[in-house]
Write a structure and sequence with these properties.
Structural class: alpha/beta
Helix content: 40-55%
Distance between the termini: 39 Å
Strand order of the largest sheet: 3-2-1-4-5
Radius of gyration: 16 Å
Shape: globular
CATH topology of one domain: Rossmann fold
CATH class of one domain: Alpha Beta
CATH architecture of one domain: 3-Layer(aba) Sandwich
Number of helices: 10
Number of strands: 5
Order of helices and strands: EHHEHHEHEHEHHHH
Length: 203
Amino acid sequence: MIVVSDTSPINYLVLIELQDLLPELFQRVLIPDAVHRELQSTGAPDPIRRFLAEAPNWLEVRPSPEIDPALPHLDSGEREVIALALSTKADSVLLDERKGRQAARERRLRVSGTLGVIRRAADQGLITLTDALGVWRRRTFARHRSCSTVFEAARHEAAHDERDTRELWPHTKSIWVTSCMDPSHRAVRGCGGTARSGRSSRG
């Protein structure tokens, strides 16, 4: 099985030390040049830098084929992921951003994301879902934009995929909402979900 990944799934899986799930689940993991550049950006966290310094053999960096001119609303990584997936006839793409996921589905690509990888690994007995999401919750990076991005991706997977996260959505939602709280129990800006007080928090 061939999968083409955007930046965020690799970024988040590395940060919660679950990047080795990818070669366990997929025969080939491809990333386009734009994603490789984003992972190497000056603002990348230290674990990402260390990961790329000794990049594993299973991670294949591929030049981007011709980009669909109908995708100017996506960032360069998302555009190249979709183009590479189409040119290689990949089985799936890993995208967390809503617009990228929608564009991929419109081109009949099977879409998953960070949570989809965790769910698939849990299905195969490689990890325990509760433990994996618990690690996410304890990491401080869960209290910024990653929270709302992957929370939204999880919601869309539950709504669109044949099975994927539909059964796990209520449990996942509760963990994501808790992850979006700072120590004073206030909703962190940019996170989706409902605060413990019961009020909606949109940031």
